Amino acid sequence: MRFPARRAVLTGLGLALVAACAKKPQAANGWERIKASGALRIGLEGTYPPFNFQGPDGQLAGFEVDFGKALAAQLGLKADFRPAPFAGLLGALESGRVDVVINQITITPDRQAKYDFSEPYTVSGIQIITLKGRTDLRRPEDLAGKKVGVGLGTNYEQWIRANVPTADVRAYDDDPTKYQDLKAGRIDAVLNDRLVAADFLKTSPEFIASGPPFAAQGAGVAMKKDPGLKVVIDQAIDALRANGKMSALSQQWFGMDVTR
Fold first, then answer.
1. Burial code of 230-240, b = ≥16 C-beta within 10 A, e = fewer?
2. Which residue among 19, 46, 127, 243 is least crowded, i.e. fewest CB within 10 A of its CB?
3. Short-list 48, 49, 54, 43, CA closest to 151
4. Is pTM beyond 0.85 here?
């Protein structure tokens, strides 16, 4: 009996290994790993009411916390929240410390080039916030030459730098500090989500929402590039819409449906 040459055997094994590797999914295995873990690791700030914040009992609360729990439950998982400063949330996603980020991450072309996003789960706009009694800052163009506070790394920072380049942009790691500076007169205005502003102003009568919201924006669940995981997340959100959970959460936190 003749045996194949050693080189031929090795070549055949090499080709078989290459073929086997080629059949493995390159970017769509995230869902299988998450499902096997039993938990959805969710990155969020925990300092951004009414979306996510610490309640009086020290526990996380807010619309996005409830949404994150509902999303995880729809997927048959437990929600595992991992708070971090906003500027580090997408870095935590890239490093694999979290599976998704649910923190009013606005869907923009630049971000879509690096990450996958679910369909929008809230639709909002940018709001100018000033001290009560100030009437000269009602439109984006009014911010030219003014000191404007924004969250570091947020869509608001990107928007003001791109659209009002002469504004003196001051970026902050958290919300409370920029409002302290606004109250003290160290900045002229703050840009924030119109829904966040509406909730914040209920308990902060020294400030006002100045002018109408602008630059309509949708926020989605951010994840690494993974078409398979995106499909699973979108299907879960669709199910939450169909069973009325999304609308109910929105009414609970905002008194209106902000999810469409």
1. bebbbebbeeb
2. 19
3. 48
4. no
Chain-centroid distance of CA 19 in Å reads 38
Q: Kind and range of the H or E element at 47?
A: strand 47-48
How far the first Cα of the chain sits from its last, in Å, is 73
Helix (H, G, I), strand (E, B) or coil at 221: coil
Distances from the Cα of 170 to the Cα of 42, 179, 183, 229, angstroms: 28, 12, 15, 36
The span from the CA of 80 to the CA of 26, in Å, is 26
What is the edge-to-edge ordering of all strands in the sheet holding 222-223? 78-83, 39-44, 100-101, 222-223, 116-117
The amino acid at 183: K
What six digits make up the tokens of 174?
């958290």
Strands (DSSP E) contained in 146-242 are: 147-151, 168-172, 189-193, 207-219, 222-223
The string of pLDDT tens digits covering residues 48-96 is 999 999 999 999 999 999 999 999 999 999 999 999 999 999 999 999 9
Per-residue pLDDT of 202-239, as tens digits, reads 899 999 999 999 998 899 999 999 999 999 999 999 99
